[in-house]
Amino acid sequence: MKALDERAKKIADGLSAADKAKSELVNANKRVEEQLAAARTDATQRLADAERLAQSMIEEAKSRANEEGAKIVAAAKAEAEQEAIKVREQLRDQVAALAVKGAEQILRKEVNAGVHADLLAQLKTEL
Questions:
Q1: Could you tell me if 127 and 96 are in contact, meaning their C-beta atoms sit under 8 angstroms apart?
Q2: Could you give the angle at the alpha carbon of 59 between the alpha carbons of 56 and 65, nearest 5°?
Q3: For position 39, what pLDDT does the model report?
């Protein structure tokens, strides 16, 4: 009887230990699932933060590119305007020279540019 009682006690202790181990396994599985869920949430949050940061950087780069483009266009327009003014001045000089040559041929004598400088300057401004 004593041996059976001991055997029953060992079996009961073994079942108790198995139940305890099973309970600990369930608790460990719960903790693992909770940690996995927390890790997934953290990863999702970090990914969202990274996407927001990337979008912000893209928008900032676009803004800087637009500003730089506007500066380049403004500089090109200013340069074109200066070039146009320069070309107009050259054209006026050429037209004035042609007018003097035409007047020389009409008058069949040479016109002195130094003597007629005021008249030529006025003609140049009128052109």
A1: yes
A2: 140
A3: 96
> Among residues 102, 98, 79, 101, which one has the least CA distance to residue 90?
98
Task: Name the amino acid, one letter, at 56.
Answer: S
Which has the closest alpha carbon to 93: 63, 116, 124? 124
Report d(CA 61, CA 74) in Å as an integer.
Answer: 20
For residue 34, what are the CA distances in angstroms to 22, 27, 40, 49, 126?
Answer: 18, 10, 10, 22, 89
Alpha-carbon dihedral 79, 84, 90, 96, rounded to 10 degrees: -150
Task: Give the DSSP per-residue string, 45-72.
Answer: HHHHHHHHHHHHHHHHHHHHHHHHHHHH
- Which of 68-77, 85-94, 114-123 shows the highest mean pLDDT? 68-77
Question: What would the mean pLDDT of 40-63 be, rounded to a whole number?
Answer: 96
Using CA atoms, how far residue 47 sits from 35, 57, 60, in Å, is: 18, 15, 20
Residue 44's H or E segment, with its range, is helix 2-107
pTM of the model: 0.49
